[in-house]
Structures are given as structure tokens and as C-alpha cells.
Design a protein that fits this description.
The protein is α/β, with parallel strands linked by helices. The chain folds into 3 domains: 32-129, Fumarate Reductase Iron-sulfur Protein, Chain B, domain 2 (Orthogonal Bundle), CATH 1.10.1060; 144-239 and 383-443, FAD/NAD(P)-binding domain; 242-377, FAD/NAD(P)-binding domain, CATH 3.50.50.60. The chain contains 16 helices and 17 strands. The strands form 5 sheets. Strands 3-2-1-4-17 form a 5-stranded parallel sheet, sandwiched between helices. It has a 5-stranded parallel sheet with strand order 6-13-7-8-9. Helix 4 packs across helix 8 and helix 13 crosses helix 14. The longest helix is centred in the last third of the chain and has 19 residues, at 425-443.
Length: 449
């Protein structure tokens, strides 16, 4: 697999200043005046549908009312008491299909309340101005829990366990915490090193230690963790990527979109990461859109996002798809990859047009080619099962009970790695929070585990 970010022999890329401007905040934060004006738009509904639409059940009308009355830090505490990673969720969550879609203002053909921006305003204000962490630990229980994975689910679980008085050691495979918040979200969604600043803030509660480059299966096993801890939470995410199943898939210039995004996020100077002239991104989710938009922002002349079905079947939100088009990405639908062209480096891909026949996706026999010197695959990820032996698997993921307990006593799991996991940061945070309460009950003998 080649580093497609460095394959660009003849195309001059944008300057550092141009790239910095291009990768600036996707959504500009509200100032105090605009925040109060946005808060005034809220009707403070009884039994508000926006709360029901939020996976973490944040009391949205209350925190907006607190902003309107000048109690911004109180608003942040209302948010963070339910979602300790509310800052990231305010930046990256698809609020347009969650809380904002549920806003009753939509029924009057008005714009919904800007809930995401208001949430960011409050959490950013507290993180910038608080002299102490907004939450405190309960009395030390003497219990020690292992959390595997420092992504949203693991960090949320660790923080809530610390609040409940337990000691936590987080085992993280990578050299930095944050999971997809740090490595997998588009750079223009997480500017100013926010993912790391949020982790630092979260750790201020105390009682949490993170050990890095500690991956299950590499000198770390669930059996070892069970011997040295009172309970375990597994929040490993999805480590393996799906394959196209085509010849030449390992040819230089063909790579996984998540690797492309990770390198971009970790680069201090984006001018060293000029992308190719012609880029193809295969997939229909938000990762595909992030890869396509960022390729365009890096200076690619032609970026084509190809998806095998129609737009209504894409898992990316309508907003994200529209963003791609506004950034100059060409979206080609009803097309499936057929072959990769090139010998020493990818030169093009051949696609077959598709349609639905008798309820199934089929090829039409009609084909076309798109030139490419970089192909990014964003066709989904799967759980690495090799290090999870002994845990029950269902549908390629970990099977858990309603209390996030696995089939092994004392081992719990949440986030993308579980059967009912959703590819949303906010859902992973909720999983971690609820699993922490279940672990607390298990340790007290009040709940099964």
C-alpha cells in the first residue's frame, strides 16, 4: 500500500496559508451576542422532542435557557452531566438528523434552534474559563476497572466510573487518546487540537490513568486484565477495514480512507501532504465524504465519490453530501467497482452501472472508467475478533445484554464494537456512561455482569 498523499509529481499544491484557511472551522462558533439571540429562538417546550432525539438525553431546553439568562457555565454543566464529550459532539455530531431535526420550529417552516452551536458555545466557555473540573469523585471504593480503548466510549465510561469513586486504567493501542475523535474525523471539524484538549479536561476529575500502545493481542489479554482488575469495559471500536475484493487492490495508490484521514489529522504541516491530481473515493458514509472533501481542500483537481446505490441509501447525511458537492466533489451514484487499472501505481478504475431488479442490486453491464492516481476506500470497518476470544459474537460484533454485559462475568462492552452499536460519537459516549453505571451495580452486587 503506497502513501497516496505523497504521489503528486506534477501538480503544485496550495500554500500553507491557503491550506490553513481551507481547513479552518467548518462551523464558526457563536459569540455571546449571537448565542443569546440563538437561545431566544427556543420555545422551551414541555416534554421537548429534542431531548428524546439526543442519544445522551441532554436537557436541551434547560441549557439553552441557562445561556439566555447568562448562566453559561451552568449550561455547560447541564450538557456535560449527560455527555462529558459534549464539545466534540457539538462539532461533529449530525445534529441536523438528531436534535435539530426534532426541533418543533421545523413544523412552522422556520429554521430549527441552533442546538449544536449553542452546545459548543457553552462547553467551550467552561473549558476556557473554569478553574476546576465541574464534577468531583465520590469516596474511593477501592475498586479498579480496566477500560480497553481510549475512544469516546472508553473515555466516557472511565469518567463516569471515576465520578462513582472507582479507579480506572485505560489501555490504548495508539500513542494518543481520543479514538476516532483524534484520528478519524475531518480536520475542519476538530481544529485547534480540540480532541486532545477535551481529553485533558476529562482527565481533570482524577482517578484515571491511560497507558498507551497497549493493544489487546499484543502482550495484553482479557485474561490478564481479569486477574488484575475488578471489572473490564471493552470499547475497542472497529479496527479492521473492509476490502473491495478486486485484483490489484494492494497496488500503490489504493488505500483505506481512514488511514488517509489519520495521516492528515496527525500532520503538523499539511503542505507536506499534497494529494493526487485525480482522486476516487469509494463509499457512501460520512468517512467517504470527509476523505473526498479533504482531498479537494488539499488541492486535488478532480475528486469523485462513487457509491453503488442511490443517494437515499447513503449513510452520510444530506448535509454532508451537499457539503461535498459545494466543495467541488463529483458524486457518481449507481456504480460499483469492477477493476483497478495500473501496474506500478493506480491509473484508473473501471465501474459498472447498477440498478435495483426484483429488490436486489444488480449490474447493468454498462461500464465506464475514471482516471485516478489515488483511490480511497471507505466501505466500512469490521471488528478485529482475534483478540476477543471467549466473548460471544453476534453479527460480527460483541453480543451484550441490556446492561452492556458480555457473556463473560465482569466484562462489559460498548460503542462501535457491540452488536447494536451505531457509528456516532454521541451514541458511543452514551454506551460508555450507561455501562459505567452497570459496572458500578455489578461491583456492588446489585446487578448482573
Amino acid at each position: 500500500m503506497a502513501d497516496g498523499l505523497n504521489h503528486r509529481p506534477s501538480l503544485s499544491g496550495p500554500s500553507k496559508d491557503e491550506l490553513d484557511a481551507s481547513f479552518d472551522d467548518l462551523h464558526k462558533p457563536l459569540n455571546s451576542i449571537k448565542a443569546i439571540a440563538a437561545a431566544e429562538h427556543c420555545l422551551y417546550c414541555y416534554d421537548a422532542p429534542c431531548i428524546q432525539a439526543c442519544p445522551t438525553s441532554i436537557d436541551i431546553p434547560t441549557f439553552i435557557h441557562q445561556i439566555r439568562t447568562g448562566n453559561v457555565d451552568g449550561a455547560a454543566r447541564t450538557i456535560l452531566s449527560e455527555n462529558i464529550m459534549g464539545g466534540t459532539c457539538a462539532r461533529a455530531c449530525p445534529t441536523e438528523v438528531l436534535c435539530e431535526e426534532a426541533c418543533v420550529r421545523n413544523h412552522g417552516e422556520e429554521d430549527p434552534v441552533e442546538i449544536g452551536l449553542l452546545q459548543r458555545f457553552a462547553t467551550d466557555h467552561l473549558m476556557a474559563n473554569a478553574t476546576s473540573h465541574p464534577f468531583s469523585r465520590a469516596a474511593n471504593t477501592g475498586k479498579h476497572i480496566a477500560v480497553v480503548g481510549a475512544g469516546p466510549a472508553g473515555l466516557s465510561c472511565a469518567h463516569r466510573l471515576a465520578m462513582l469513586g472507582h479507579s480506572v486504567t485505560v489501555y490504548e493501542a495508539k500513542p494518543k487518546p481520543g479514538g476516532l475523535n483524534e484520528y478519524g474525523l475531518a480536520a475542519y471539524k476538530m481544529v485547534d487540537n480540540f480532541a486532545q484538549r477535551e481529553v485533558d479536561f476529562l482527565l481533570e476529575i482524577g482517578g484515571i490513568e491511560i497507558l498507551y500502545e497497549k493493544a489487546l493481542g499484543r502482550k495484553l489479554s482479557l485474561a490478564d486484565l481479569k486477574e488484575s482488575h475488578d471489572a473490564i469495559f471493552v470499547g475497542v471500536g472497529l479496527g479492521n477495514t473492509n476490502k473491495l475484493g478486486l485484483d490489484k487492490e494492494d497496488i500503490p495508490g489504493v488505500e483505506d480512507a481512514i488511514d488517509f484521514i489519520e495521516r492528515l489529522r496527525q500532520a503538523d504541516d499539511k503542505t507536506t501532504l499534497q494529494t493526487a491530481r485525480d482522486v476516487i473515493v469509494i463509499g457512501g458514509g460520512n468517512t467517504a465524504v470527509d476523505a473526498a472533501v479533504q482531498s479537494k481542500k488539499l488541492g486535488a483537481e478532480n475528486v469523485t465519490l462513487v457509491y453503488r446505490r442511490g443517494e437515499d441509501a447513503m449513510s452520510a447525511t444530506a448535509y454532508e453530501i451537499d457539503l461535498a458537492r459545494r466543495c467541488g466533489v463529483t458524486v457518481r451514484l449507481w456504480s460499483k467497482p469492477q477493476s483497478i487499472k495500473g501496474d506500478t501505481h493506480v491509473k484508473a478504475m473501471k465501474f459498472e452501472r447498477t440498478r435495483i431488479m426484483n429488490g436486489k442490486l444488480v449490474g447493468t453491464g454498462e461500464t465506464y472508467k475514471i482516471p485516478a492516481d489515488l483511490v480511497l476506500k471507505a466501505i466500512g470497518q469490521q471488528l478485529n475478533l482475534s483478540a476477543l476470544k471467549g466473548l460471544e459474537i453476534a453479527g460480527g460484533k460483541l453480543a451484550v445484554s441490556s446492561t452492556f454485559a458480555t457473556n463473560v462475568s465482569g466484562v462489559f462492552a460498548g460503542g462501535d464494537c457491540i452488536k447494536n452499536g451505531e457509528d456516532l460519537t454521541v451514541q458511543a459516549v452514551e454506551d460508555g456512561k450507561q455501562a459505567a453505571h452497570a459496572i458500578d451495580g455489578y461491583l456492588k452486587g446489585d446487578a448482573d455482569g
